[in-house]
Automatic annotation (TrEMBL):
It comes from Pigmentiphaga kullae. The keyword DNA-binding applies. It comes from the Bacteria. This is DNA-binding transcriptional LysR family regulator. Residues 1-60 form the HTH lysR-type domain. InterPro entries: HTH-type_LysR_regulators, LysR_HTH_N, LysR_subst-bd, WH-like_DNA-bd_sf, WH_DNA-bd_sf. Pfam families: HTH_1, LysR_substrate. The keyword ATP-binding does not apply. Belongs to the LysR transcriptional regulatory family. PANTHER family: HTH-TYPE TRANSCRIPTIONAL REGULATOR YBHD. GO terms for cellular component: cytosol.
Length: 316
């Protein structure tokens, strides 16, 4: 059976006007076309709905039974239509984003404030979550998108590389661990110039730390046991307090006088990793997603320029 709201509205219009001709005029279709439509309805329902004479149109017993049902269907659809339209518009202007805590603290405030000016109707929800939780909520449809380092493919989730980042060496200004390294005050440092002291690190199971460890091992650098923390912001805080030096991605590097620290870009080689936007495959995305992504990349580029200018490196 393939009855539509258009069929029910045509049926009700005939009942109200008691005329196929007048109903066709109100519906802006031809009278033969309306007759064919009602024949289709009667064929699908296997009954006659109207008794027609040259002067009148009356409902049959079957038509009388259909009348309240058709009226209810039309009334409910017309009632819910504007509600659904409003929900659709709200959905188009709402964006729920999952981000790592350090990214939420260092980058997202600038993205949020810029979007308040450029997209004043955007309802942006930023959730600072661990990476596994970002993946889970994107996969389940609880988040529109997620941001972070996702080197492995996840079922039902597509990845879009947004930008590349590299790494910086960070130490407290009060505890110069590089005292025996070349170019102690340089803004760049080679991996093989890193001091042989315990570092503040992420757990070895985390993707970022695994990449750092591979790079150090490839240069025959011995590991020294240091303190391990679960979050990048903890690494920065510990290093700033003089507990030990650390290696962090550039997107997390402090800018200005946030911390009393010294930083240097790690070179030879420059280790780069992708930072991704992840979305659920097949999920309809809000119209504001591209505006959000564009603004995020603008903020990242400005932040990266400031870090690299400080390091004396021209990335233009």
């Amino acid at each position: 059976m393939n009855l539509s709201i258009r069929h029910f509205k045509a049926f009700l219009c005939i009942v109200q006007t008691r005329s196929f001709t007048r109903a066709a005029e109100q519906l802006h279709i031809s009278q033969p076309g309306l007759s064919l439509m009602m024949q289709d309805v009667e064929g699908q329902l296997s009954c006659r709905l109207f008794e027609r004479t040259t002067r009148s149109v009356r409902l049959t017993a079957a038509g009388q039974r259909l009348l309240p049902v058709a009226q209810q269907v039309v009334d409910e659809v017309e009632t819910i239509a504007p509600v659904l339209s409003q929900l659709s518009e709200t959905r188009r202007r709402t964006l729920r984003v999952g981000v790592p805590p350090i990214f939420s603290a260092s980058v997202m405030p600038h993205v949020y404030m810029r979007l308040r000016k450029t997209q004043p109707t955007l309802d942006l929800h930023i959730l600072d979550l661990p990476k596994p939780e970002v993946e889970r909520q994107v996969q389940n449809g609880e988040l529109d998108c997620g941001l972070g380092v996702f080197p492995k493919r996840v079922l039902e989730v597509s990845r879009r590389p947004l930008f590349e980042f590299d790494f910086v060496y960070l130490e407290s200004r009060a505890a110069p661990f590089r005292s025996r390294a070349k170019g102690r005050n340089a803004k760049r440092i080679r991996w093989d110039e890193l001091p042989a002291v315990p570092f503040v690190e992420l757990p070895p199971t985390q993707d970022l730390q695994q990449q750092i460890n591979k790079c150090r091992a490839a240069r025959g650098m011995a590991r020294t046991d240091g303190i391990r923390m679960n979050r990048l912001e903890s690494l920065i805080g510990m290093a700033a307090a003089g507990v030990g030096p650390t290696i962090i991605p550039t997107f997390a590097a402090p800018i200005g006088t946030e911390f009393q620290v010294s930083t240097a870009l790690l070179t030879a080689p420059v280790l780069t990793l992708d930072f991704h936007l992840i979305i659920k495959r097949g999920r309809e995305q809000p119209a504001v997603l591209e505006a959000f992504t564009r603004t995020l990349l603008e903020v990242i580029e400005e932040r990266r320029d400031r870090i690299y200018r400080t390091a004396g490196k021209d990335w233009g």
